[in-house]
Give the backbone structure.
Amino acid sequence: MKIIIVGCGKVGETLAAVLSQEGNEITIIDKREDVVERVCNQYDVMGTVGDGVSYSTQVEADIASTDLLIAVTGADELNLLCCLIARKAGNCHTIARVRNPEYSEEIAFLKEELGLAMVINPEQAAAQEAARILRFPSAIEIDTFAKGRVELLRFKIPAGSVLHGLSLIDMHSKLKCRVLVCTVEREGRIFIPRGDDTLSAGDVISIVASPEDEVMFFKKAGMPTSQVRNVMMIGGGEIAFYLTKLLLSAGIKVKIIEKNLSRCDILWDTFPKATIVHGDGTDRHLLEEEGIDQTEGFVSLTPIDEENVILSLYAHKMGAVKTVTKINRYVFEDVLESLELDSLIYPRDITAEYILQYVRAMKNSIGSNVETLHRIIDKKVEALEFIVRDSFRMIGRPIKELPLQQDILLACITRSGKVILPRGDDRLEAGDSVIVVTTQKGLNDINGILA
Amino acid sequence: MNYRMILYSLGWILNFEALFLAPSLIVALIYRESAGISILITAVICAAVGSLIVLRKPKRLKIFAREGFIITALSWILLSIFGALPFVMSGYIPSMVDAVFEVASGFTTTGASILTDVEALPHCLLFWRSFTHWVGGMGVLVFIIAVLPLAGGSNMYLMKAESPGPSVKKLVPQVKSTATILYKLYIAITVLELVVLLLGRMPLFDAITLTFGTAGTGGFGVLNDSVGSYTVFQQVVITIFMILFGVNFNAYYLLYKHRVKDALKNSEIITYFCIIIAAIVMITINICSMYGSVGMALKDAAFQVGSIITTTGYSTTDFNLWPAFSRTILVMLMFCGACAGSTGGGIKVSRIVMAFKTVIKELDYFIHPNNVRKVKVDGKQVEHTVIRSVNVFVMAYLFVFAASLLLITLDNLDLVTNFTAVAATINNIGPGLGLVGPAANYSLYSPFAKIVLTFDMIAGRLELFPVLILFSWHTWKR
């Protein structure tokens, strides 16, 4: 598929890397010559130096035969204009990044009027993810499927848990709830477990279940299930803005520490219910004064990654139940994983994930599409949701008879609103939505799960 | 430095060399020649050593510009050494140095020969000589990139190191598709020439070998007097195709995409044709008195100009006998070379254009010291790094040229011979003037001088830096 990416910042570069690896023909457009040069050298993409909004630049990048244009420059207006021109200049789908909260209120209108295929707001997406985690503090990562009917949760088994020493076959009979373990991370290794594998404390596992079953599962496993009661945020940027909105509506108390006074005014004006503190969030004295030892959730959202990491580690030490750390640059992820950091959110990765999902679905417009795509555990595992169509070769056959590939797990089937955790005798019917967990990359058709 | 990956790539080079030998083997079977056995043995050796190396894939496939340069340079040296084996084993060129010279001359599309009697070679070896031209013309690594996912996205470094021109650009986003498109265009034009020559009633074997020589802008013929004894029609066809293969292949891609205007607007191509026409006119006037008719003078002048500027090196006549003015024009054309992104060698027209514009720009600074001025080509500002690389290339070119000239002067031949010998090898042309003129060959040089000239051929084909980097201490330091 031919894709043009306008703007080669953090998100643009990530997209260029991932999409080119999946075999798409990528052309990047950026005004900065050195950036284009560097990205072209690093990945198998072609570069055009110029203003992505200009018609002639788009023609130079061969807009006429392009399937998709993704505008991810720093400015919302440029992105929208870029997509508008691309729609007129070529016959392609367009995706724009729009981060201004005022515009995002009017997203539906913009999408309709400008003919955009997708509008993505990285900050809002990141805030949604953070909010999910804070509402369920036992999890490190939560991804939703089937319109929220199924969730994939990743969490660490605490010492002394009932789960310690439990084999997967016994789990169902012992805990009596419908939960399926998808992946186990142990000593830096990731594997899809089998029935005779046993869990032990310290493992990070991911499970698939409906939200109700999850709560039951955690109650029986002796882990907290209630949402945090209060959250402290350091940095009052866009993510904090969206996150505050979400948390307040869920009845969680919010305290924001922000350096910039005028920003504080805006936040206070918008969220009269939240406590806005003007001050330096990295000031230890201030943090203690504002009661960091009593807060249950702590979210570090400053623009500097190093500061966020240190702050979260400190909050953890002071007893915060749940910490969420924003990481902008995805460089030393292996170092971050080794720290006691609880949950991490990567805004640019979330953006890339959403767009990737769209691209895979678009690539496969006939047959069974990727409905949802989540890349979990450091992007090493992909969880995909497919709708089974008539084109699926093994329709109606019991699962135990399917010649499934090695590293693939059928995690869940949703049939007319009912969640089924698949067993050997279950069948895939047309219209089902299936969640597939795999360590393979680039799966984009449900027939691909068959050997 | 990713040594494993360098070794792995070289393993693939050997495997492909075995593949490249296959057509010659078929020729040997057709003509039932015993020299085919030496080709078979070489192919087996290449395949065996190559497969042994590629058996284990390196863990780290990522390479950078440095590795790209080194892989390219070592590949070409390796190709020349292994490609020489059939000549040595069959005994037609007993000396290894001579054989490597001959094959390096083939792969680098130089066309300089040490053979006094070409016609004595069996068909299969003649075919191998010419086939190396064809493969070397568009590039061995470009071919491998087109068929093999060697280093993923980092393949661009290999392509940059091998393809000629000041700034190598992709035609389409993926390196692999770019390489495939280049080879498709290359094959298409090659087949076209072959068909036209066959229509002109040239024998099949001659037509194939001469087409390979023209396509790669190489210059190995199968007769002792190069192209002199073919008909006028055949000579004119070869003239036209030589000039066509000297054009930047991007232009053909644009033509294929029906973007005729963009293809013809390219200032490099315009300059290239202007130079050719000017040179033909001047030489024709100059040599007219030597020939009975203007037509014959024009034919020979056009053939020689086309042959030298595209760095092919075929000849229809001994231009050593031409007046000094015409010979000097030919020597200048040797340095000028063909377009960037073509199969020709030399400094390249685009570099000449940029260097010329840089001089004009600098001149302007003397008149208006505070003037803001940038070099523009095709209406686009040329980046400073490109200008710098052009300047550095010309400097390095002069240094290598001077050093080689000094070294081969040890053989105590005259200056015209030595000067044009270095010029003809570093620019991948073939024949020079004086004792290495079109009617003579390079057998008179000592083995040492031949090694120097072999180095010049490979350095010239790869545009110096990939080869020069091998001599830098910092390259090999961990």
User: Anything to note?
Assistant: Chain B is about 65% helix and 0% strand. Chain B has a mean pLDDT of 89. Chain B touches chain A at residues 65, 152-153, 155-157, 170, 172-177, 383 (CB under 8 Å). Residues 3-31 of chain B form the longest helix (29 residues).
